[in-house]
User: Fold these one by one.
Assistant:
Number 1:
Amino acid sequence: MRYLFLCVAMCFALSAYAQEASVQEAADSTKRDSVAVKERPAPIKPVRTLGEVAVIDTLPTASELISIVLFNDNTWRYVISEDYKNDTEVFSDHWDTDATHAYKDVELSSFPDATPIRLVDSLEGYHYPYIGRITSRYGPRRGRSHQGIDIALKMGDPIYATFDGRVRFSKAAGNYGNLIVIRHNNGLETYYAHLSQRDVEAGDWVVAGQQIGLGGSTGRSTGPHLHYEVRYRGQSFDPERIVDFKTGELRREELLLKRTHFSIYSKFEQDFDDEVEVAKQEEAERKAAAAVQYHTIRSGDTLGALARKYGTTVTRLCQLNGIKSTSILRIGQRLRVR
Ligand SMILES: [Zn+2]
């Protein structure tokens, strides 16, 4: 009986050990997975959707500049006070509620090589403007520059503010149709065009995810779509650098905005390595071009003498100029020697 008990106890211990080992194994494989995942940071989910959510209270914090806003779905977030925002230069410098573009006098050449832009932090929310099929990307289009992105929509679908900010422009504006421009705390401006309805006016403060209007087809438009632009100090760049319009997710928390990104040919798909590679190649081509040298044939010049003079060979001279070593040189002829 005692043996039987011992045996049962041992079996139990063994199976417990085996179980523990498999748990350990599982933990190891999870660890491996998480290491693999870490190499590629996950995209950022929309912080909140305000569709059915309403503000129920605002609470002060130790800082006068920051309050806590409570929502009726038991969530909350920090909000920077509007007085503080009023004091920052972002909402006063080049603030024009009548012009679609407020930074006309700002030259691209005055920009630094790269500007870091914080897209979200604990105080700043994010929400996609609209999720849908992209019908036209950022870039050259039929001889013109398409400075934004077109997303097909159903007439009357709600359009949302991308980040917190203040409405700088809300009017009908020629080709843009009904246009809303929001300036954000980080200095970016987002443009929402062809709207069928505008729900906010210039000067209104908005939060990320707030409905600002309805999608439409006003202005120069062949069908209902959202034309969406992102600009920094008046210069547009590919909105897909920020937003994944398929999933609605924010691509990154911080954006390093390079001056080269403002080129109409600059697409988000080119990652950094690519750009470094292109820059290197361009530098090599520039050096090669700079190294090219010509000699104008004078009386008495021979291929052998030129090869000695420029430290090269007759064969190389013939290659560079597509001639034979027996070719007759004419006075005044330009030969490439390097
Ligand atoms: Zn467009």
Number 2:
Amino acid sequence: MITHNDGKTALVTGASSGIGCATVKFFLGKGWNVVALSRNLQKMQARLPASPYLLMVATDISDESQVRKSIADAMDAFDRIDVAVNNAGTGITGPFELLTDLQIRRHFDTALFGHLNLVRAVIPIMRLRQNGVIVNVTSEAGRIGFPFNSIYEAAKFGVEGFSESVRYELREHGIRVKIVEPGQIRTDFAANSDVADNSGAPDLYPIFEKIKKLMRDGSKGAAPETVAEVIYRAAISESSQLRYPASSVMLKFLPFVPDRVLALIMFSFLSRL
Ligand SMILES: NC(=O)c1ccc[n+]([C@@H]2O[C@H](COP(=O)([O-])OP(=O)(O)OC[C@H]3O[C@@H](n4cnc5c(N)ncnc54)[C@H](OP(=O)(O)O)[C@@H]3O)[C@@H](O)[C@H]2O)c1
């Protein structure tokens, strides 16, 4: 077994791209061992540095048996997992009535059940050492409703509620739970998102056509490294702070804006499109 510094090990999902990729590099730079998971091993090999302190494992987090196998590989390599970063995810946009049941279930399989699969697999390992941190990456869309984003929001709100609740039961086993909530970040996220097929009814939701153009611009937003830094800060924090906004202007103002006012702002934005 080869270990970095004092052997601290972080596991990061969604490591082949964007925020996950930046997070792997950030932890490596801080002297940690890192286990990187995504479905595409070649993409990880192309984008991450070759290092004896980095183990890359092709894993689909929606498949519990793959997650368990990858956790076993991680333990074989480094013998511990101090931090698990549940970051993997894709987007899904469109009017709810035009999204199919299959699209919705496929999204939940990764964005909700995939996250639960990872947490379920790391709890026993962290419980044995009475120490560990689980960082769930949600979004400002895990706190605020955005139009034509209902299913993405449902999964992110789900992970927020799950995290807020499960942290109480894990605390007595020395496991801390954190939520990192990015705003708009420059990644492949928009390009990788699933979109409702409205070709059969293009006039049904005309505003969606305009919003789609805004949403698919992946060149806007903060660099993924800014989120990686927040994830690292959350992971090493000894505090009981649960939520860590990352490059989100909206979340800065959220505590001061009542629901009613937020809805007025959103409706007025939609009416000006
Ligand atoms: N970009 C933004 O503006 C933004 C804002 C708020 C929140 N977020 C959240 O940040 C997280 C990372 O997104 P990103 O912006 O970095 O997007 P990204 O560049 O598209 O990266 C997504 C990563 O997730 C992996 N992934 C997707 N499905 C997977 C599965 N079933 N199993 C394992 N890995 C899977 C992808 O790798 P493979 O295809 O190789 O599996 C990829 O590495 C997501 O949870 C997203 O919801 C992003």
